[in-house]
Design brief:
heterodimer; A: alpha/beta; seven-stranded parallel β-sheet; two-stranded parallel ribbon; 14 helices; globular; B: alpha/beta; five-stranded mixed β-sheet; four-stranded mixed β-sheet; 14 strands
Chain lengths: 366, 328
């Protein structure tokens, strides 16, 4: 008997992880076809330019997670429900500073709309949801993959909205798997950064001498991962029948780096530049959260707009530094076949890339 | 940096005197006169209440008065003073009341620039045996710097007795606020002696970051760097004294905002109860010598007991962080 070819429906394919997942799945299965949800012509162009020849097997689908029925054309919807065998939902609003209502619109309600569509897909075998390890929110200590973050609360609306979306996925009657990537800091272990995010911006502020105090303890760890580990894991485990109803921490886990080392490696690298060193920027001091908050409050009260604005932008995630946790990765390691690379193996390369590209601005200018 | 030296006794602080101008102003009055950048409420929330503002007095008048009191109060024979260090308001500006400082500043372009307040002090007070030094450009750490130099010269050149004095008026056109701190005019004099039973100058440490020389332009970075550098200097001062942070019985602050001291105490993991902060509301922040004014008042109040370990710390515009470890 000839197996029916797989047809993927993917959201977030124009993003770093979603795009890489799509490419990996198409390469792994030459018979696979895909529908990719895009919001407009720019998304279609992006797919064509990044996928090259693989784009011939991809049908861009105009739609929007914010719209009822995802705003998908009726005929396309019929085709999706007839053909799709697996869904990867990688689209998200990852802006930490959104209000809860705004974050819920894409992350929770968008997921609800997608699940509704999926219930009408007759031959759907797998629904893969790309969440975040930070649904654990304010939890401390070891966070197991089966933990659902209940009770600790969250640092920002993004974390909470992803937690709520996970709950919708679990409650669905679909065959689901939930991926919880940690914070992605580079494309691969070569340290290249193609998407600058909040962690990079915090490092930039530190480099500029404007973030000399951070909450946390030296020996607490920060969990980050490279994008290729995450997308490889999603692409492979989505096809794995043993992954049904599993939640995977795509995290550094035991390979996370201590905050002290993280800051020291950055400082020591920057200090190799004599002009930077001459400025006398002090190593960042780590404070308890109460002291750090007092500093932020003092800056706000004094109306120092630039510094206040920086601290405000950091406030949506930096408290996580003072909420030490270690993500258990045993289920992910077993299903993926290996652990994520140790952060120490690429942290310095990533920093060097950030510096060389002036946090991405040099690349844009070019 | 100064290190504790086992073979030589530590010089000591043998006396402190200070003088404020007669005029007092509340932060609300200053806000009403547009002399503050922040609101009166913010200044009050930061712990400030009153400051002293020079009007008819000159910086030199205050310096002379502070040293005179120091000499009289401590029964000092004038010939026994081997060193006089004057810090603060420079040249002819030291001889002018605040409202004539603009005119006086023109003196820097003439031979009037050689009319030094340090030399005049030596003459006016009869300190004829004293070598004279002027110290400048250390802002609010000037007197700490002067005491560190006096300590070193007592140890290395055998000077038995030194007088350090700083007198500073905040620039008249600059209002009364400097990086969220409400400022006073004042003079403070410190008597340093080669040895003595109390108030040993155990160690000191200074970090200067010239990158921040243009303080107004670098304000954000100065604010951001203030705390990590302050912690570094405080810990190095404590370490040079052979102490651990927990050994410190009292922090004698410069009178900047209470909020900033709460933050620095948090970074040093020292309880706020160890901060002697009584003078922040009473006097505000002087450029001349908060730490020594506070140390004197804390001694007079009986707060500091003999043998207790005391950290004096100050930051000066431009940018200098200085700590001094004193065993009371």
């Amino acid at each position: 008997m000839i197996a029916k070819p797989q047809t993927l429906f993917i959201t977030g394919a124009t993003g770093l992880v979603g795009g890489d997942v799509l490419e990996r799945m198409l390469r792994a299965d030459p018979t696979m076809r895909a529908y990719a949800l895009v919001r407009g012509a720019a998304g279609e162009c992006h797919l064509r330019s990044t996928l090259g020849a693989l784009a011939a097997r991809v049908v861009p689908v105009r739609g929007d997670l914010l719209r009822r029925g995802l705003g998908i054309d009726y005929e396309i919807r019929k085709a999706l429900t007839r053909e799709v065998t697996m869904v990867v939902h990688a689209a998200a609003d990852t802006t930490f500073s959104r209000s809860l209502a705004e974050s819920r619109m894409v992350n929770r309600e968008g997921t609800r709309q997608l699940l509704s569509l999926c219930r009408a897909i007759g031959s759907l075998r797998r629904f893969s949801y790309v969440s975040t390890s930070y649904v654990a929110g304010r939890a401390l200590g070891l966070v197991l993959e089966r933990d659902n973050g209940v009770g600790a609360g969250w640092v920002n609306a993004y974390e909470r909205s992803k937690y709520e979306a996970e709950a919708l996925v679990r409650e669905s009657s679909l065959d689901w798997v939930i991926f919880r990537p940690s914070t992605i800091v580079c494309d691969a272990v070569n340290g290249r950064v193609s998407q600058v995010n909040a962690v990079h911006r915090a490092l930039k502020v530190y480099n500029r001498g404007l973030a000399a105090m951070m909450p946390g303890e030296r020996n607490d760890t920060l969990d980050v991962v490279p994008a290729d580990y995450v997308s490889d894991a999603i692409a492979r485990v989505t096809l794995d029948p043993h992954a049904s109803a599993q939640t995977l921490h795509l995290c550094a886990g035991a390979g996370a780096i201590s905050i002290g080392d993280l800051l020291d490696v950055a400082y020591d690298l920057w200090a190799t530049d004599p002009m930077w060193k001459r400025r006398g920027i002090e190593r960042a001091v780590l404070a308890d959260l109460a002291t750090y908050n007092l500093f932020a409050e003092a800056v706000r009260e004094t109306g120092d707009h630039r510094l206040a604005s920086i601290l405000q932008s950091l406030s949506h995630f930096i408290p996580q530094l003072a909420l030490p946790k270690q993500f258990d990765t045993r289920i992910a390691d077993a299903l993926v076949g290996h652990a994520a690379p140790a952060v120490s193996s690429y942290w310095a390369s990533m920093l060097a890339h950030l510096l060389a590209s002036n946090w991405g601005t040099a690349r844009k200018a070019a | 940096m100064l290190h504790k030296t086992a073979s030589l006794p530590n010089p000591v602080i043998a006396g402190i005197s200070y003088v404020f101008p007669a005029c007092n102003r509340s932060v609300r009055q200053l806000a009403g006169d547009s002399m503050l950048q922040s609101s009166a409420e913010t200044m009050e929330a930061f712990g400030f209440s009153n400051v002293h503002v020079g009007t008819s007095e000159t910086p030199y008048d205050l310096a002379r008065e502070a040293v005179s009191r120091l000499l009289v109060d401590n029964g000092i024979e004038l010939d026994s003073v081997g060193l006089l260090i004057y810090g603060g308001t420079p040249g002819t500006m030291a001889f002018s009341p605040a409202d004539e400082a603009d005119l006086a500043s023109a003196g820097f372009c003439t031979t009037d620039r050689f009319k030094y307040p340090s030399a005049r002090l030596q003459y006016d007070l009869g300190l004829t045996s004293a070598s004279v030094f002027g110290l400048d450009q250390l802002a609010c750490t000037t007197l700490l710097g002067a005491v560190r130099i006096a300590r070193s010269l007592c140890m290395t050149e055998g000077i038995e007795r030194a007088v350090c004095v700083a007198s500073e008026f905040f620039p008249m056109h600059a209002g009364r606020e400097a990086i969220f701190n409400c400022t006073s005019d004042a003079a403070c004099a410190v008597l340093v002696e080669r040895s003595g039973p109390r108030n040993q100058l155990v160690s000191g440490s200074t970090v200067t970051k010239g990158y921040y020389w243009n303080t107004d332009a670098m304000r954000d970075e100065v604010v951001a760097s203030y705390f990590p550098t302050a912690r570094f200097v405080a810990e190095r001062t404590i370490g040079n004294a052979g102490w651990k942070p927990a050994d410190v019985d009292w922090i004698i602050p410069h009178n900047v905002s209470m909020r900033s001291w709460q933050i620095l105490s948090g970074l040093l993991r020292l309880p706020n109860a160890k901060l002697w902060s009584e003078n922040i509301a009473r006097h505000g922040h002087t450029l001349a010598g908060d730490n020594f004014i506070n140390y004197r008042d804390a001694l007079d109040a009986g707060a500091i007991e003999a043998g207790q370990r005391v950290l004096l710390f100050s930051y000066g515009f431009g940018a200098h962080w200085t700590g001094l470890a004193v065993e009371a």
